Amino acid sequence: MNNKFKYRISFVIACLLLNSIIPTKLWSQDLSDKIDSKEFDPATLMWYKEPAKIWEDALPVGNGRLGGMVFGGIEEEQICLNEDTYYSGGPYSTVVKGGHKVLPEIQKLLFEREPIKAHKLFSRNLLGYPIEQMKYQSLGALHLFYKKGQEYSNYKRWLDLSTGVAGVSYKIDGVTYTREVISSHVDQTIAIRLTSNKPGMLSFEAELRGMRNNAHSNYGTDYFWMDGENENELVLRGRSADYLGIDGQMLYEGRARFLNEGGKVSLDDSRLIVENADAVTIYYAAATNFVNYKDVSGDQAQRVQDYMKNVDNKQYKKVREEAIQDFQHLFKRVSMSFESTPSSYLPTNVRVDSIQNNPDAQMAALSYQFGRYLLISSSRVGTQPANLQGIWNYNPNPSWDSKYTTNINTQMNYWATESSNLSELHEPLFKMIEELKDEGSKVAKEHYGAKGWVFHQNTDLWRVAAPMDGAQWGTFTVGGAWLTTHMWERYLYSQDKTFLERAYPTMKGAVDFFMDFLVEHPNGKWLVTSPSNSPENPPAGPGYKYFYDEVVGYYFTTIVYGSTIDMQILKDLFSYYIQATEILGKDGYYANEVAKARERLVPSLVGKDGTLQEWTEDYGQMEKHHRHFSHMYGVYPGNVLSVKRTPELVAPLKKVMDLRGDESTGWSRAWKMGIWARLYDGERALRIYKGYLKDVCTKSLFALCSGSMQVDGSHGVTAGITEMLVQSHEGVIDILPALPKEWGTGKFDGICVRGGFQLKMVWKDKKVTDLEILSKAGILCKLEIEGKFKIMEGGQEVAFTTNKDGSLQFKTTKGKTYQLIKI
């Protein structure tokens, strides 16, 4: 096997004069002035007084496929680059044929309380092979080197969430230098614009660098050398890592094109040198040979050439305008604002600290919009779904391989998609779910002897579906079932029957698997999943102890039968499927059988300690403050337990959350925000949010997990804030259900709720003053709101009825907007 892969950088120099010179004062300089005068919107602007020192604090740009992390340096600018299909390896399968033959013995051992024996049998027969999966990779970085040792002043860098533009501005010797970076979805390039407010003052050197895998010296990038095939481009070519015995079949190319206005350009070894230019525009494009999860026959070089054609003879002003217009088509669908305070205008990293002691409700609006920004930047129609790090990764060996972890993290990336009015950005996730059925059906047959399809706790670009990493994690069989609930949520928010027809086979395939896989509990009443686990928490019960695991070393086991989260997810899946059959008018007999099976799933149980049990057996907690609390899925994001429908379980649910505490990882705290909002405790949710900012959030507002950047927590915070302001999972639009006192005055426009409704709302002193409801589907609207109102549409009063629970309901017409007028 050849483990040497060659990468080439090509420099050829040219001085190009643009047909029309753009004024040297950059648009971003206007924003810099607004920061000085505090005339910016603190709900959409992140800004800082110093460059990023580490990658995690750089500012992200992305067009769904092509991402950059901008450091904003003075002596050296670094923009780390990614392309969403660049993974190690190539198409492969992890299915182990005939594994299902040992399944009855595993189930028998679990019922006999022999978990370690069951664990080892699972490891030897049902773990996929290879046991690990492929890694999301970095394409390297563009470096710009400036003169060292110069004194500078009035430094600012920023990310304008409302435009998708990252910028930098500072002064040296009375000259103001500005840079801005955009990842354009329209042109499929990253555009970088450098200017100064005096002509002839731009001088720098540039390199395009690849990334070598230091942990695996035979893998990753290898060599660089000169190639003179283009007149004004830096070119980087390479091949993906040969990892886990899977040939590195991914080829990639990245090109940076330099268009200078004035000045002199020359070449010195591996650096492009610009001297005394008036302005410089850099376009960066990249691609791989990836076609789909089974095919890598694409032409990466031709793709890059085609992307570069998008900006041929195109002025930067036009590139910028079109990129912003495209971005704002999505971003501007929702606005949110709370009361501003002096703290709201501080640099973002200072605001994160200041909010602990000073009011700054606008920080919540900024966090909300940052999550939306990340989704727009990392998940577009036609791209891959957002992975653990979105599309931003600098490490060839990233934490958890920066792939798709589906025992909560991937799902959390998309929790706010529908409510935050970005419905079409769900599409990459839906496509991945549909692709997972391919390997998932083979895993169902070979590993479990079952129909349908199954998927576990992780996958990568190649859509493998078997258990991986170890039995501690791999016995989570409901990862695919959980993912399909997102398809149902799309239907609930849109009322789109055409989409439900598309989703139906995927949902039914997941149901088919569990109708085969469920086994009878020894009590003869219940049906349980077996094997099972409650991610990623080891129970403390008979037979559970640390032991030597042949896959991962000295460790613990999580293997059980009938974990609570399994039961809750299946209750949701079966319920959603039954409703889908009724709406679509199909498979009624089978739906009845599914309904019977649902009735036999283990009910919610309360343990001897007064908490909701995490497992069918009343085991104790080996790790009492574990970051996962998976048995709370049924409260949020699921729809099995609630204050209204299961009031007898509220105390056990709250006790679980009290025992787990308010601390933990970024995504864990974001999840806690949503749960406490569903429990109508906005003050607790706010306290957790502030702790999230303080302890597990980077200066650039990314969430952290065990010190590593992840985007899931940032998305989860967006979803949690939504749950505090409006809920709709109970069949009623619940207005301000968990509003903390600090957010007593505010407004939003564009948030969506189930039933196909879109809201515009203003409130003051925690009371709604104005509410508009756009009906996009024309169905009955049920509303829970404090106060007395009349409902108007087109100048006419609309009749409504008041239900026993105090909620209002009225008929709507598709496309009409209804105003609630306080009386």
TrEMBL record:
SUPFAM superfamilies, per database record: Six-hairpin glycosidases
InterPro entries: 6-hairpin_glycosidase_sf, 6hp_glycosidase-like_sf, AFCA-like_C, Alpha-L-fucosidase, GH95_cat, GH95_N_dom, Glyco_hydro_b
Domain Glycosyl hydrolase family 95 N-terminal: 46-292
Occurrences of domain Alpha fucosidase A-like C-terminal (ranges): 727-820
Superkingdom, taxonomy of origin: Bacteria
Keywords per UniProt: Hydrolase
Keyword Lipid metabolism set for record: no
Statement: the UniProt record of this protein carries the keyword Signal: no
The Glycosyl hydrolase family 95 catalytic domain, residue ranges: 315-725
GO function terms (MF aspect): hydrolase activity
Alphabetical list of PANTHER family matching this protein: ALPHA-L-FUCOSIDASE 2
UniProt name for this protein: Glycoside hydrolase family 95 protein
Organism: Gaetbulibacter aquiaggeris
